[in-house]
Amino acid sequence: MIRHIVMWNYANGFSEDENIENARKVKNGLEALADLDGVLEMKVRINELPYSNTDVLLDSLFESEDAFKSYKVHQRHLQMAELIGKVLQNRVCFDYVC
Fold it and tell me: Number of folded domains in the chain?
């Protein structure tokens, strides 16, 4: 299995309300990808505490490295990546075999 964890901050230029709405769109869109083949878990957390370093976290689990590779090039994932690139920044990622 592959655990894929990604964290972002809100992009500059948005109001607090816009950031929250954008984060909800990201959450809903990414969690909808849980129905793709090989995806075991797809959870998004939006930070509500003022002392964290990041605003949005994706915690996902894939049944295999091949499933993860397929996810990365899937059209629905690429569409989400495009949205994320517009509304979030400072991406940090950690992937590992579990």
Answer: 1
pLDDT digits (tens, 9 = 90+) for 17-44: 999 999 999 999 999 999 999 999 999 9
Which residue segment(s) compose the domain that 43 sits in?
A: 2-97
Distance CA 35, CA 37 (A): 7
What does each C-alpha distance from 28 to 3, 51, 70 come to in angstroms? Answer: 20, 24, 20
What CATH number does residue 79 fall under?
3.30.70.100
Taking Cα atoms as reference points, which of 73, 70, 69, 90 lies closest to residue 81?
A: 73
Rounded to two decimals, the pTM is 0.95
Give the pLDDT score at 50. Answer: 86
